[in-house]
UniProtKB/TrEMBL annotation:
<dbReference type="InterPro" id="IPR038656">
    <property type="entry name" value="Peptidase_G1_sf"/>
</dbReference>
<dbReference type="InterPro" id="IPR013320">
    <property type="entry name" value="ConA-like_dom_sf"/>
</dbReference>
<protein>
    <submittedName>
        <fullName>G1 family glutamic endopeptidase</fullName>
    </submittedName>
</protein>
<dbReference type="InterPro" id="IPR000250">
    <property type="entry name" value="Peptidase_G1"/>
</dbReference>
<dbReference type="Pfam" id="PF01828">
    <property type="entry name" value="Peptidase_A4"/>
</dbReference>
<keyword id="KW-0732">Signal</keyword>
<feature type="signal peptide">
    <location>
        <begin position="1"/>
        <end position="27"/>
    </location>
</feature>
Length: 263
């Protein structure tokens, strides 16, 4: 997929987007701001800058993903799930973004069905939210929900043979959202991912919000722990160097920690 080729997408600069989103209503409240569709419509989660994509059971690098991807042949994966505690972010004046999600496809092709959360700093304000996405469309925010740092989440994507079901549950706030979709055109179900990410915003990979550490637990594909599939470890690095932006720890029993290193 070419960068931001979705129909109807409007390219905006980071400065213009920040100004548009830093509204008085966000600045006036001491409670965390919530993801809106106006924000989400500029975000996407396409894998960028992947090095050595053909390797299996290896450590690879990407400019925007950090985590693990189980890979295989077409039809190898029909479900993926994981749980995590929503990270909190402390914001300065910089605008930064971070997302945490599970998905099918996306590692070795342009298809991707996924759902997750995000922790951003927009206009100096911590902004949290929940979303789903089916490429090549942009992210869609779940409406009518509240997300806070410390909330307990479980995300699942399942292919039923005809459609994909994306479910995100916040056991702390007591809500569950489910979306059913036909999936990306040309989907293959050839990979399953659990990822922390610097999403694309306005067509460019965003600066990564300092999320500290996010710990993924119960990471499974096809009902088995993700590590039983010898997944690739993905380290997020800067595009202009090998400097690490986010680093996953070793995975065992379906659990691993992912640590922020640099924006």
């Amino acid at each position: 997929m070419s960068p931001r080729s979705s129909a109807g997408f409007v390219l905006v600069t980071a400065a213009a987007l920040t100004a548009a989103l830093a509204t008085p209503s966000l600045a006036a409240s001491n409670t965390p701001a919530q993801l809106t569709q106006a924000i989400a419509s500029h975000e996407s989660h396409t894998l960028r800058g992947l090095a050595q994509p053909g390797k299996a059971n290896a450590t690879v690098s990407s400019t925007n993903w950090s985590g693990y991807a189980a890979t295989g042949s077409t039809g190898a994966y029909t479900s993926v799930t994981s749980s995590w505690t929503q990270p909190s972010v402390t914001c300065s004046s910089a605008t930064t973004y971070s997302s945490f999600w599970v998905g099918l496809d996306g590692y070795s092709n342009s298809a991707l069905e996924q759902t997750g959360t995000e922790a951003d700093c927009i206009g100096g304000k911590a902004t949290y939210g929940a979303w789903w996405e089916v490429l090549p469309a942009s992210e869609s925010a779940y409406s009518g929900v509240t997300v806070k740092g410390g909330d307990k989440f479980t995300a699942t994507v399942t292919y039923t043979g005809s459609t994909f079901t994306m479910t995100l549950a916040d056991s702390t706030e007591g809500w569950t959202k489910t979306t059913t979709h036909a999936g990306s055109s040309g989907f293959k179900n050839a990979s399953a991912e659990v990822v922390a990410e610097a999403p694309e915003v306005g067509g460019s990979v965003a600066s990564l919000a300092d999320f500290g550490t996010v710990t993924f637990t119960g990471a499974k594909a096809n009902g088995s722990n993700l590590d039983t599939f010898s997944p690739n470890e993905i380290v997020m690095t800067k595009s202009s160097s090998s400097a690490v932006r986010a680093q996953p720890g070793s995975i065992s029993g379906g659990s691993f920690a992912d640590v922020w290193k640099a924006s």
